[in-house]
Every structure is written in C-alpha cells, then in structure tokens.
Write a structure and sequence with these properties.
seven-stranded mixed beta sheet, 23% helix, 7 strands, 149 residues, alpha/beta, binds adenosine-5'-diphosphate, Rossmann fold, globular, binds magnesium ion
Length: 149
C-alpha cells in the first residue's frame, strides 16, 4: 500500500499526469472515495496525460464514456448501478487495449479483473486529500514502485 498526501487540486493533477505517463494498454484503475473527493478531477488529468484532447466530464448519467488518445480510455462511473444485481458485461471492456478507470468500482466487484490498481481518495480539510494506491498483481506493484520511488 502506497500513500501520498496532497495539498491542492494542482497536486492531484500532477500525480494523475505522472501516473498517466506510465500507463500501458489495458491497464485498469479503480477509484474510490466520497462524492467530491476528486475521482473525476483525477481522471480528467489522467486523460490529459494520455493525450486525450476532448473534455472529460463526469459520466454519472451515462455510466461509460470512451475517448481516443495515445491510449484509448474507458471512463466508467458505476455509482448509479448501486441497486442493480444484473450482470451487464462490463468485464468485456477490459479485454481491449484501452485503459479503464472506474469510479465506485466496488459496485461491480465481480466484473473487475483480478489484476488492477485500486486508488482511494480521502478528503481531509479544505483541498487536502490522502491518496492510497493498492496494487493487485505484479504489473501494478511495478507501476507503484516507479511512481513512488
Ligand atoms: N486536492 C484536490 N484534488 C481533487 N479535487 C479537489 C482538490 N481540492 C479541491 N478539489 C475540488 O473537489 C471537487 C472534486 O470533485 P470531483 O472530482 O467531481 O469528485 P468525485 O468524482 O470524487 O465526486 C472539485 O470541485 C475540485 O475542484
Ligand atoms: Mg465523479
């Protein structure tokens, strides 16, 4: 488990861009944290770092948005699936070369690949945040080691 204390939105953006530079095809990131923690803010900067020029906004009402960049991006926000037990086949998204970022990923726990990077954002006072990165699998352990070296 890796931890980073953040003082400002700019620092969140910088962390996201550093991560984006290191992403490979088919990488999967999950984002957990209360409303307003900064999941979408973080995703926007990952997208910029992937060379995506279209504006990334919260896909809350559409669940999935896809973008083209250096690597394609699947941005999911599954918040509204909270009361659904249906198998909607999200796992199929994870087979392609796109990077996937999933807000509220625990709501589709059974569809998640076993190897992934789990990111938690805790709101502290004001603009401060505590980020924790938990890698599942060798690929993501390496990624975290590089990012936090
Ligand atoms: N350090 C920070 N990191 C991310 N967002 C921050 C930070 N400080 C303040 N904010 C603000 O908090 C809000 C986060 O909203 P958003 O990214 O939509 O959260 P979520 O997707 O987790 O609900 C934004 O209004 C953003 O400007
Ligand atoms: Mg959001």
């Amino acid at each position: 488990m890796y931890e980073r204390l953040i003082d400002s939105e700019q620092e969140t953006e910088a962390l996201a861009r550093q991560l984006a530079e290191k992403l490979n095809p088919a990488d999967v990131l999950t984002l957990e944290g209360d409303l307003g923690a900064g999941k979408t803010t973080f995703t926007k900067s990952v997208a910029k770092g992937l060379g995506i020029t279209r504006n990334v906004n919260s896909p809350t009402f559409t669940i999935l948005k896809q973008y083209e960049g250096r690597l394609p991006l699947n941005h999911l926000d599954v918040y509204r699936l909270a009361n659904s037990d249906e198998d909607l086949g999200w796992d199929e998204l994870f087979y392609g070369e796109a990077v996937s970022i999933i807000e509220w990923a625990h709501l589709i726990q059974d569809d998640l690949p076993s190897e992934r990077l789990a990111i938690q954002i805790h709101r502290l006072e004001g603009d401060k945040r505590r980020f924790t990165f938990e890698p599942f699998g060798k690929r993501y352990e390496q990624l975290c080691e590089e990012l936090f070296e």
